[in-house]
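S2.1 Query sequence (3-oxoacyl-ACP reductase FabG)
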Amino acid sequence: MALLEGRVAVVTGAAQGIGLAIATTFLREGARVVVGDLNPDAAAAALDTDKVRAVRCDVTRAEDVSALFDTALTEFGGVDIMVNNAGITRDASMRKMTEDDFDQVISVHLKGTWHGTRLAADIMREQNRGSIVNISSLSGKVGMAGQTNYSAAKAGIVGLTKAAAKEVARFNVRVNAIQPGLIRSPMTTAMPEKVWDQKMAEIPMSRAGEPEEVAGVALFLASDLSSYMTGTTLEVTGGRFM
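Output structure tokens follow.
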């Protein structure tokens, strides 16, 4: 039997990159999926199946995130898995970063993950089951120059994950996080070649990761294979910054 047969998942930021790979993997493993993205048409086109519902979602708005769960409950009858993946970057040195650049990144990553975690947990605790997977980043572990906003947000996601896991464990709801390293995606391949090469030199496995490799770990955390794991953060980095 497929690992997610009969389950319903919600995934944010699923029109491309890691989010799209996670949604695709969950579908392959038997789940029905509600995807939330600022570009729902792109997500729907990439995931062309009647097992998907695509909804426009700005994760900084609680009502938008709530609409994702309403769709899952109405269309598919439940919410078993939540993946908080939506994100943006506004990289700059502290001297050049604007307050708006800082606020936007914190709001999308950290506040967006908080909305998704708390609203999913409200549903899951009533069901007495559920798995929440939050996408952090290696930047949240080590801090990256030019990313004070992003590193702070991604570190915050780890703390949020641990605190939420403690609150809802007694309801059989698990909350875990993933910290990807350099993963080949539209966001990372847009960086200057010099920066890309510098990051590659830090990876013991001597290659960038693929979105599907993060999706495989998300599948593990979403499924019963990780049934006794909560509050953990799994690194998918090729050994970078061990």
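The longest strand covers residues 173-180. The chain is about 45% helix and 15% strand.
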